[in-house]
Amino acid sequence: MGHAVGIVGLGVISRAYLETLALSPAIEVVAVADLDAERARDVAASLPDAAARTVDELVADPRVQTVLNLTTPAAHAGVALAAIAAGKDVFGEKPLTATLVEAEAVMRAAAERGVRVGCAPDTVLGTGVQTARDAVTRGLIGRPVAASATWVAPGHEAWHPAPDFYYRAGGGPLLDMGPYYLTSLVHLLGPVRAVQGAASRTRDTRRIATGPRAGEVIDVEIATHVTGILEHVDGALSTVVMSFDGAGTGAAPIEVHGESGSLALPDPNWFDGVVRHRAAASDHGGDDWVDLPASAGYQEGSRGVGLIDFVGGAARASGDLALHVLEVMTTLLASAESGERRAVSSRPAVPTLVPLTAAAQWRAAEAG
Length: 368
Prior knowledge:
By secondary structure, the chain is an alpha/beta fold. It is built from 10 helices and 17 strands. It folds into 2 domains: 3-119, Rossmann fold (3-Layer(aba) Sandwich); 126-292, Dihydrodipicolinate Reductase, domain 2, CATH 3.30.360.
């Protein structure tokens, strides 16, 4: 029997998790809960041994060892704290919580209760980011000096049938997409010690394009374009652009530049993709980028592999790392508002490199 998990929140992202967890004997979903009770019953009926519960019933269920928290950001803290109070480990979707104060409360409560906290994104455990990290660790580009992370899109109202929360506190392009990019940067270059940012909001309303609410206008309460500079503890500088205000970008999602070479990474919102390397002119006979073979990471990764990693004991998608990334993002937004450089206080341990692990191997892993 696998590690018993209860899922709270059965929206769009839950489908991806359920598909992955169904492949692993390490996980057994025993309970599900959602504000929509009918949805919870439907999902429970599709699983071998799951019961539909209210949130209170799920966190109190003695069978549940870990609560998988897939609610919207505003509900992350409440669900996590309830689960922790009941003595459950918690693994949640990003961001860890909607605010830094809530995140600190969650981590403090977990430490006091003696339970563990994990948090997405787990995409950074795939072969894309991990191969690049392996290249950095092996010295392929020399000492890292700089990086860039870029994500530009029109906004999630173009495809999401209920995009309201993306434009409220806890949403926005940085808090929504930033975790993929900033978590990757921490894996590659280490924690961040200070930030400086700028932000803007181009429109006060957005129009939903799809679904039953198509045509409905919603209010925008947060910045929709954020840019900033991150100072890493080892001296490297990263520049970040996250935006709901553009049609798209041709920039590499992440680039890392060292004294003797550069790396171009695939989209960290996905698990795999090709990492490209270019040596410095003094070390290379031409200007071509060279594709690197996958050398680290979970192959054919999918959302939920971080939970499998978590229950197996590695916990590379840790709450401490998620707290740090949230502090970096909220401090960057505060810096954008004040116009001042701001320090970042948390210093998480950088998770260990994921060895190159075949899909059949991680899917067959047992719970620790």
